[in-house]
Predict the structure.
Amino acid sequence: MIKELKTLIAVAREGTFAAAGNKIGLTQAAVSAQIQRLEAELGFEIFDRKGRSAHLNRMGHQILLQAQELLRLYDNLGSTTVGLPSVLVNIGAIASVQRSYLPDALAKFHQQCPQCRTRVIPGLSMELVNLVDAGEIDMAAIIRPPFSLQSDLRWTTLALEPYRLIVPRDVPGEDWSELLSTQPFIRYDRSSFGGRQVDRFLRQMHFTLREVCELDELEAIIKLVENGVGVALVPQTATHQEWPVGVRALDLGQHTFHRDIGLVHRSRQSFTEPVRILAQLIGEQVKTGSE
């Protein structure tokens, strides 16, 4: 079973049976056979197979987390370092949270809870909501979904981040609506919750735009604006209290809308003590950063 679990982790990392085989020194057929044995032992499929690619399904994600923990315990068999961290807290986080509030909160957490380990799972907000719902992670720091959460999930707001129109430094003008209407537009990807907020705002305001690019990564959007490609509507996150030298940010005045950043989790009564402590530290870090 141990070798099958190691193969499972390799396939999850590499994305195909062939690539995983090259990584661990097995043929594609041998990798496929091991995964089939593992699925037969478990009684259900853990990968969705499309062509040559293999992606973990919902149960597969849960099995992956358990496999990683089992292999860690297996590797420590006979070890005299029994005091190594043993409690695992899994937290999902969107990219902007990983770059802002989370690192300092994690540092304080590990100082307070040296017996614990943490694992940060990256992803889009929708993906992370699903992982919390499936019980595969303890909580997630995300953009608030534009729909009601399942009845057993809870929302805790951390920060409200105002959207700004950012323009290249050398583009003149202070009228944000005129600049938005006349300059090339770089769109925040509509598959993300933040991008949907921008899309709703634009439709409500009845803007006619000249779109040149659509992407999800905020840092990349800001870089494109700095390089003169166009203008963009993006949230002013904790990491962007000061914008790059080549960018100007214009306030939307009475039309300002916000990105609600927070934690999605189950009821706090179901929190383990380490999860409760980490959630509290993240909240404290957000407050400290906003002061």
In short: The radius of gyration is 22 Å. The CA atoms of residues 197 and 259 lie 8 Å apart. The chain has a mean pLDDT of 88. The first helix runs from residue 2 to 14.
